[in-house]
Amino acid sequence: MQPDVPLAMNEFETPWRDAWQALLLGAPDGVLPALLARWAEPHRKYHTPQHLRECLAMFDAHRGLAEQPGEVAIALWFHDAIYDTSRHENEAASADWARRVLGDAGAAGEVVARVEALILATRHSQVPATADEGLLVDVDLAILGAGPGRFDEYEQQIRDEYGFVAPDVFRVKRAEILRAFLARPALFTTAAMRERFEAPARANLARAIARLD
Question: Which pLDDT does position 1 carry in this prediction?
């Protein structure tokens, strides 16, 4: 467990319990410290408590758009719970953890299935299938539309997470990823998030690609 986890516990305990209350379930014992220890792993530079904090705040500002707000909140807690830059099934592993925790807490099967689907939607490989998936993905991608300073910090954090990748290789691969986002007809699904973030996100992406090139 990282040294800042006890402080993070104080910060995150209320939203954690609120998420479970929205599901009409009690927060399971021992899971929050284990989650925060994962989020605080030393190899993480972007997928850290900062990202979790930003996601929870963004969701809180758009909670009214959720059909099942408790499910979206729990999915946010777990969506990057497992994060290893050397593996490609992080979302599946994170969803599996969430499924086990929800099942042990007594969540209904359909709730477990929807939360699993929400987490898997953060692979960003397919168009979100439901309104809640669209909202969750928008929250996860809101960093693309952040102010230039925060976006540049984010890009550096991603580079630091992949510090083991040779610079020339990273530039090519990262540019490919950013171009794929820029080529989408729309980056955001919900009207409110699209209106707020679409234009600045496209400007940030174009600027980042030019820098990589």
Answer: 38
